[in-house]
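Record type: monomer structure entry
Structure origin: computed from sequence
Chain ID: A
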Amino acid sequence: MVSVSSALNLADLQGNILRGYGKQYVRHLVLSVASSAAARRWLFDATSGDEGAAPQITNAEPWDERRRTCVNIGITQTGLAALGVSPSSLNSFPHEFVAGMAARNMLLGDTGPSDPSNWKEEWRGEGVDLMISVYADDAADRSATADRILATRGAFGLRAALDGEGFAGGLVHFGYRDSISQPQFYGVHDPDDRRDDQPFVEVGAMLLGHATPIENLRWEVPQPNVLGSNGSFNAFRVLEQQVAEFEDFLSACADALIKNPLSETLLPPGTENQWDPPMSRHAALREMVAAKMLGRWRNGVPLALAPTTPSPQPRIDDAGLNNYGYASDPDGQRCPIGSHMRRSNPRDAKTVQRNTNHARRLIRRGIPYGPQYNPSNPVKAERGLLGSFMCASLTGQFEAIQYDWTNLGLQDPRITGSNDPVLGNNDPLFSLFSFPVGEDAVKFRGFSRFVHTRGGAYLFQPSISAIRYLAALSGGRTSNAR
């Protein structure tokens, strides 16, 4: 059974914030409001409890695992205005949400190929008012539910339908196993089916109106209270992954390491023969570089627990994949300080901003889009991740991680000035990824960014009460499909 604090009303929270659905199919409907009255009628129907009137927005109450589809909604600043939210109420929302993701591109590292001018057409200019997401067990149910939403007469204009599909083993396009670590919340947690030594997190890290991980701080709730309370923010990103370039980079790094005497300290010769499955020396060095870049081996085993093999003995099962920290590895000999995971979640490592180690946690919900990459038949196609990064403060959590940690490395002076090797805004003129090997270090330079932002939006995910409040408003847009 799920344990729930009496201070929380799960029936008032949208699902998929505090707990994930685990569905294999997703369709994100990127929409404009064509008619405010019709859109508000849909919101009313979608929270009425009558599945025959409209697909119901899923709340956070424990759901039957046999439930075939789940539906959630996020609304932009322009969408709130189109639904009839007053200017004074809109002005009570955080400035970064009001400005929108595209206007924050310099803080997020969205420059060069990721600049908003290069985003997909549906994300450019005005017209992204809301996003309704359909999660399903199979493609047919996904399509049927999405089609019902789009059939709502006069309510919405479709800008894009973004389909994602999970890969076997929870893999993403770069070949890593994903969604291993998520925050665990005080008052809302599943039975202890896996060990995680990280502190539990206050629900105010995700939900407005609740205590946050920062002492004596609560994020300001947009007004009126019924609209803002129990809501959350979602930085939704379409992240195209340059998979072939990434794999070529690993090969080039292995070529260099084969000639580097440090490789014998990094991976003692013959170790790769004990892996499951055994690998050639060159293939093993490729996997070592991939692990150093992320902080885990591609099968999910953390470097902090197994620095020289992805198949340690005794085997680390799923229950043990989060049972580690970095305090015993202060110099990054096991897991580099500049690796993607250690940057974005420092755990118990010493950082310059010491009170932020556990204060910038995000909920990550992501699913691949595009065909899975096959190195033996490398078909050229767009592929990437449809990612939701949820929090109570976009600037205090999501933007702070992107700016301070991902793209500047401010958490530790030894990596300051370098970017995240996987996600960072890298350019061949200045890119650098290094990690210590004994008293020396391995350094790789001159690589491009491997993840390009192709679109996105800052969305507000209102509570069920707030959705009903929006449904009862008046005014807004009469008929203006965009």
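Annotation 1: The mean pLDDT is 93.
Annotation 2: The first strand starts at residue 3 and ends at 4.
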